[in-house]
Amino acid sequence: MPSSVSNSAPAHEMDRSQPAVVVEDLHRTFGALKAVDGVSFSIDHGRVVGFVGANGAGKTTTMRIMATLDSPGSGRVCMGGHNVVHHPAKVRRLLGWMPDSFGTYEHMTVLEYLDFYARALGFKGADRLRRIQEVMDFTDLTPLADRMSNKMSKGQTQRLCLGRALLHDPQILILDEPAAGLDPKARVELKNLIRILAQEGKTILISSHILSELGEMCDSLLFIDKGRIVHHGDAESMVRGTATAGETLVNVQIAGEPAKLIEWALTAPLIKIEEETKRGARLRIQAADDDTLSGVLRRMIQDGLPVLDYHREERRLEDAFIDMLGQIDNNTFKAPQPPAGLPQKNAEDVK
Amino acid sequence: MNTTLPMLRDFSDRFSPIVVKELRQGLRTRFFTSALILFHTLIILLLITVTFGAPVEAVNGIFWGIAGFMLLVVMPLRGFAALHTEATDGTLDMLTLTSIASFRILYGKWVALYSQALLVAGSILPYMVARYFFGGVEILREVVALVVLSLGSGIITAALLAFSSQGPLLLRIFLALCVGAGAAPLAFFTTFLVSASQADSMVRAFFALDLWEQCSLIGGVLVLVVYAVYYFLALGSSRIAPPSENHSTLKRLIALAVHGALMVTGLLLCLHGKDPDIALLAYLPLMFLTLIVCMDVLTEEMPRYSTAVTALTRRGRFGRLAGRLLYPGWASGVLFSTVLCAMPMGVLTGFIHRHSSWNWSGSPGPYMLCLFLAVFVPVILRINRANAFVNWWVVQLCSVICGIMLSMFCFTMNARELGVIGIFTPITTLFGVECVDYSSRDGLMLLGCVFSAVWLLAAMVRAGMNFKTYTTLESEALQQAARETPRTHDAA
Fold first, then answer.
1. What average pLDDT score do residues B428-437 get?
2. In Å, how far from its chain's centre is CA B5?
């Protein structure tokens, strides 16, 4: 298992008196489409922040602007104290960018690929080889050094992309959907690499659809919807904040056809079907006290349902996110208080 | 460490990273090796036919046809989708995030492609020597032909690379065809050099010139070639660079310097040289290049960020004034294009003045003037509002189609006097003039030039109205400078 990838060379110029990332009132439109609509947030040094939102919510556009690959319509974005518009070169020296989809080159081995980017980043001679060796060891690519870079699995390609992003030992990493399309093993490997990078004190912004993984890895989460930040806080506050008081999720499994349970739940009072499962359903019961919950179980058995399993569920981050989007659409969402030191502006902006 | 990696020693650190990458990839592709093997096989077969008594002239023609096709078509075509592929694969973003400037990306790609073309050109030399021994070959003319083909290959490669930044495939094909049309004179010139007996008289006429004239001509052509390559690469790089960067000012300054130098040399050759016809022939490509430069600056997006105007704004009032000519964006491009077009027109005027048998209206002058004025029409006619570059080409294409339809109408209806309808745009004027009677042509041409000048005036008015964008950005740049100065003092 790799241990460290920090370069022995001095870190690039970074203003540590300011947060690592500052985004203020960022707007970006494409024709009539408002891709980013007044996004503001900041990230302190050494924090790992998850960036969550549905497809087309504005995550990638925001990240591309932060990475100097796109320009803001209006607003200010500073990375390591440097404005992305006025000092893009300084920002690029501080930044490692891993896009959601990226191409490799034909007729180029993994070693040549990294050698090319190391040259492009200004590494010379033995220094370049040492750095490539460090990165390849960290991402476990050394056995693949002679493999053609466009003939690798998705997981290996993602590791190559991460390796490329780490070549110049950036202090800030922006990872756009790094786990998309990876098998479980590759996903665990990638998660471990990110964990090590976080331990090294790098500031990481990572977007993903797999919210449970983000919840484990990240110090806080940024939720974006329709180009606006709707929540910035830790996973727990998110789960707490969107929970409807007096409701409980229960997972029920029965012997035989689950249709019986669905049919029963449709007619039962205080019960809504949250999700059908293979052997039963997840039910939302509009009560939280033990008596009512045990009463529901009793009624199921009395009505002849062959119940195999009946247990109360902890709320998942995915549920919280979906609930939040629903509450936003119904204008009933109340943003939870962000953790200390995080800006509140956009949490209050939510319609 | 797990295992020790092998050191990559194929290229020194002195090489540009992009050149290293492109050469590593390029020399491994099947396309290059297959094309090279096929080329040599054909040439060898061709030489074998000579030993069996095939006519030398026919063999010469085929030999140069194959060489020209290889150098002017096959090798440059490898740049046709170079930038587009990088953009769609997402690798262009990766390159942007390194410290490589967008111009160096293009330059590296060009060097890699062109060095492979030179490799092919170099491999022709032994066959030239072999043919020389078979007889019937004028080696000096053939060497000049090879040099012309090699230089032309460099320009075409740069042009295709520049246009490969455009997304739509149809547009790229159209632009490639335009480049092909532009390169056709090179092919004709090469054919003329290696096969026509008049080429000898041209060579003799060249050697009859004074030394300063010979140096001016060769120097001018070489400067023009280097500049054409630079300009195409700069054009492509400005299209892939982030919008906050200013690639236009340097490009325009170099354009002014090169045009100025070539104009002075051209005027000297036209007015004081022994043979002004040769001078004009050498300077025709400059006029073609001027049209491309104008197309480029007139299709630039207006800058959105103060960073694009900072450098000139900080130079005070003079800098801001110069900015109206040199800032990025089509508005300043209108003024810049006007100045630029005036330079080759000056050379042409000098040539007409020297040519005793010509007057202005009966010379190529009004035709060139119409072509130069045509570049301003898309500034006013906005068919495609989303993409100024596409708009420029669509408007020009529409003008040509209108002109062709007008000609067809006039000739089929036997109403040649209706050619006068063409005077409303510069391009249709050129078609309209060809429709009317010989005696009316000069008058109609003059009228067409006057009408066409209205497009320039309208473009200038529209540009003037958009200058407020520059004023706003200048204020922002000055504010930014004021904000940064105390920070610099604090740091000190």
1. 88
2. 45
Reported ipTM: the value is: 0.76
Q: Which of A86, A93, A105 sits opposite B91 (nearest CB)?
A: A105
* Pairwise CB contact (< 8 Å): B5 & A89: no
CB B470 within 8 A of CB B332: yes
- pLDDT above 70 covers a percentage of chain B that reads 93
- Does A164 contact B94 at a Cβ distance shorter than 8 Å? yes
Q: Are B287 and B344 in contact (CB under 8 A)?
A: yes
**Per-residue pLDDT reduced to its tens digit, A232-264:** 877 777 666 666 666 788 889 998 888 889 989
Q: Closest Cα of chain B to A41: distance in Å?
A: 22
Cβ contact, residue pair B29, A137, below 8 Å: no
CB–CB contact B24 A108 (8 Å): yes
User: What is the model's pLDDT at position A250?
Assistant: 87
Instruction: Give the gap in angstroms from C-alpha A219 to the nearest C-alpha of chain B.
Output: 27
DSSP string, A220-255: EEEEEETTEEEEEE-HHHHHHHHPPTT-EEEEEEES
User: Is A292 part of a structural domain of the chain?
Assistant: yes
Q: Which tens digit of pLDDT belongs to each residue from B231-256?
A: 999 989 988 887 778 889 999 999 99
Tell me the per-residue pLDDT of A97-107, one tens digit each, with 9 for 90 and over: 998 877 788 88
Residues A173 and A107 in one domain: yes
Distance from the first to the final alpha carbon of chain A: 46
**Domain, as residue range, for A286:** 248-312
Residue A330 maps to a domain: no
Q: Are residues A232 and A280 in the same domain?
A: no
Q: Is A349 a member of any domain?
A: no
A95 inside domain: yes
pLDDT score of B397: 92
Token representation of residue B64: 């140069």
Q: Which one has a higher pLDDT value, B337 or B190?
A: B337
Express each pLDDT in B477-486 by its tens digit: 898 888 776 6
Sign of CA dihedral A188, A190, A192, A198: negative
CATH code of A52's domain: 3.40.50.300
Distance, in Å, from the CA atom of B66 to the CA atom of B247, rounded to the nearest integer, reads 38
Residue of A nearest to B240 (CA): A69
Residues A110 and A213 both lie in one domain? yes
In the predicted structure, residue A348 carries a pLDDT above the cut 80? no
Same domain, A252 and A228: no
Q: How many domains does chain A have?
A: 2
